[in-house]
Amino acid sequence: MKPISSFFRIFSVCIPGTCLVILCFLTSCASPAKTAETTAGNNHLLVVHLPFPDGTYTPIVREFERRTGIWVETDTAEHADLILGGDSFLLRSEPDRYERIIPFSASPIVIVYNPRLIQMTPPNGWLSLFDSMWTGRIAYENPADSAVSMAALCAMTQSLSAESVEDPDALAAYGLGANPTGIAASWFRQLDCKTVPDADSVITSVTDGSCYAGITSEARALTARRGGLDITIVYPVEGTSVHTSCTAIVKGCAHPDNARKFEEFLQTDDVQRYLPDRVGSRSPYAAAEYLTSAYDQSDNSMLLRSEPEDASSVPQEAKLRPLSKIPLLPNHEEWSAGQWKTLLSTWLTVSGEQNGDRTGRPVLSDHPANYKRAGDPEYISPEFLFNQGGVR
């Protein structure tokens, strides 16, 4: 909203006979200044779309504003200069829309469970969740609304599909076929046709006992543990995926230079250290110490958090497990880019009656353009970023 002139506020209380004359005079005199003010303001503005506006990136946005003097506003995707936090394989499905796509954080997809409730037979992977003891007791977001859930569905179906599974008889024991769409349909039935409304509900459902297990990102699970919640994190033995959050500059946007400045800011050491230390996510390209070490930010100029008075009451999270120690699926992003729309279609088909025949797609943008075949608008790979030392 544009600021209202203080002169207008003062003179709007004048008697009717003089108000119009004064208002017209002020309007004619103020027009050039207003135009200059608008131009200056436009040069110090960045419009961002947050597919997942849960506050995760708010401290980073505020620090960017403080350092650069550029004001950040949020809006719908069709009016944004920059998408912040979109999943890489979803963004790359719209090659004609974005100038370039750059990953800035990564978080493996994990299973969580409540160790106070589950002690004898905890889950160890995707297949174990199809056991009857878990039916209807798994906290999982609708993949039509959550990129994390869609990434999890892709990881599950790839790891249990014919080209990946080592023991087809194990699938048959749970009544599963080895094709991705059949696995997706079986998964919906295993959930007892129920999903939780949002990402926070995955954690709360597990901790309050309404669900025995949940599927979420490692970053969100670590944040919950830092908050004192009693959950155990499991990296599926069959293999999992890394949910990569990216920025994407919209082609033809109003503030491309400011969008590039924000991209560069996300690649700074400050932000790349903040993400694993305080958000729980990982740098997708940086050196190994970013993935395995905790950081003391006492000498850091990045004022992104306030410390509690009694630091001893805050549980200290163990070092992040190195990605080399986590079973990751090979070629997963390429596999997902080619399969996720089919899996989503299957999900919407089997869930149609329960969800009022809704149609949709994982939250990425709210503009009406249809998704196209996966393409590659100058996708900046993590390896490229590492070799170049960041975005230039």
Automatic annotation (TrEMBL):
PANTHER family recorded? THIAMINE-BINDING PERIPLASMIC PROTEIN-RELATED
Give the superkingdom in one word.
Answer: Bacteria
The protein's organism comes out as [Clostridium] aminophilum
Q: Does the keyword Magnesium apply?
A: no
PROSITE patterns linked: PROKAR_LIPOPROTEIN
Under what name is this protein listed?
ABC-type Fe3+ transport system, substrate-binding protein
Signal sequence extent: 1-35
- UniProt entry keywords in alphabetical sequence: Signal
Pfam families xrefs: SBP_bac_6
